Amino acid sequence: MLTFKEDIKDTQIYLGLRKKVGWIELNPVQAQRALDNSMKIITVYDDDKPIGMGRIVGDGAVICYIQDLIIIPEYQGKHIGSRLIDKLIEYVNSLIIPDSRMMLCLMCAKGREEFYTKHGFIARPTSKLGPGMIQYILK
Q1: pLDDT at 109 over 90
Q2: In a domain, 134, yes or no
Q3: Structural domain harbouring 100
Q4: Quick check: pTM over 0.85?
Q5: Counts of helices then strands in the chain (DSSP H, E)
Q6: CA distance 33 to 88
Q7: Are 14 and 23 in contact (CB under 8 A)?
Q8: What does the alpha-carbon distance between residue 129 and residue 85 come to, in Å, rounded to a whole number?
Q9: Is 30 in a helix, a strand, or coil?
Q10: Per the domain annotation, does 53 fall within a domain?
Q11: What value does the mean pLDDT take over residues 104-125?
C-alpha cells in the first residue's frame, strides 16, 4: 500500500533514492543539510519501502522550487510521481499570501518536460521569459 509521509529527514533514504535513479552522489553532511533546509519533504513508501521523494525549497513567500522529485525506476509510469507533485503543489498553494502570487519553479531533467507540462509548468525560454540557468560551484 502506498503512503505519503511528510518531513522525514532520513539521509540514508535520501541518498539511497538518489543512487537508485543514478543521480550525482552527495556526501552525508551535504545530504543532511539539504534535508534540514527543505521547507517540505514528502517521501513515498510502498508498505515500508521508500520508493520516492520530493522536496520544496525556497522562501515561502515569493518563490519556491520543486527539488529532487524522485521515483525509483521500478515504480515509474504508475502515476506515483503525479500524485507526489500534486501534493507538493498543494503545499505551496497553502503558503500563498492573499492577493499575491508565488512562483513555483523547477529544473527539469532532459526528456521529462512532458510530465511537468501536464502539471501546469511551462518550458523556458518563452517570448517573455529567458532560459533557466545554472552554475555549479565546486570546492
Answers
A1: no
A2: no
A3: 2-117
A4: yes
A5: 4, 5
A6: 20
A7: no
A8: 23
A9: helix
A10: yes
A11: 93
Residue 86 lies in a domain: yes
| Helix (H) or strand (E) segment spanning residue 47 | none
Distances (CA, A) of 4 to 20, 45, 70, 95: 19, 6, 13, 20
For 26-35, how does the pLDDT look when each residue is reduced to its tens digit (9 = 90+)? 999 999 999 9
Per the structure, how many domains does the chain have? 1
Residue for cell digits 541518498?
Answer: 15
CA distances for 17 relative to 1, 6, 40, 93, angstroms: 19, 16, 17, 26
102 assigned to some structural domain: yes
Kind plus residue range of the DSSP H or E element containing 52: strand 49-58
How do residues 48-107 score in pLDDT, each as one tens digit? 999 999 999 999 999 999 999 999 999 999 999 999 999 999 999 999 999 999 999 999
Distances (CA, A) of 121 to 15, 89, 108, 118: 27, 11, 10, 7
Check: CB of residue 41 under 8 Å from CB of residue 25. Answer: no
The answer to whether the CB of 26 falls within 8 A of the CB of 57 is no
